[in-house]
Design a protein that fits this description.
alpha/beta; eight-stranded parallel β-barrel; 11 helices
Amino acid sequence: MTQAAAPRPTLLSVNVNAVAYLRNRREVPWPDLIGIARAILQAGAHGITVHPRPDERHIRFADLPALSRLIAEEFPQAEFNIEGYPTRRFIDLVLENKPHQVTLVPDTPEQSTSDHGWDFAADGAMLLPVAEEFRAAGIRVSYFVDANPVAPALARQAGADRIEFYTGPYAEQTTPDAVSQELGKIRNTADAARALAADGKGSLRMNAGHDLTVDNLPALRRAVPDLAEVSIGHALTADALMLGFPEAVRRYLRVLGHDA
């Protein structure tokens, strides 16, 4: 087993899709997506994540330049992460808006949310030139992966700079044994990602996302103490309905090892 790095705080990127989805229910300009993204970053979040889908049912394509400007002009220390399935339209949107990171997910247009990682055996040949196009533009590439020790090497072959664990199977467990089993899968996959350093190209850094909460994050961080970043939207937005976004963000930052 490859030894994990010493524990360090994990960065928080807040997914604002749910905010945009609420806005889109009515032909009114609120909630103000940019204003809420600003409040999130002012509270200490390290980045903003969006997942534009072809039907624009939450994030609209027109939101991307405004969010990119907000980060570049007011929060240059923060990161912009765009995730989605790599259609040509999506690829062009990413290249036009130049986020720091693109997270590629194997969603179909009708999916309500991401629910599985890439099948690299089937899709790796398609993904590699996409990754090369993004990397040539200076955009970091992360792939959404299931907890499977074979995934990191296959992701690297497909051009990955990072992987993002799909944590839905972990988050949905309700018994200690089941939780332990899913954490074991994630831990073994993290070991495989670190072991790639032996080839001289460096290990893949690791992100995580899907149904993560203040309750299940601590155990995940103990399993993967060198987890670089988590992307959280639904649960944090639900908390923000009671607490407000700044306090919800600070609550997650404390769980992730930051003073907030």
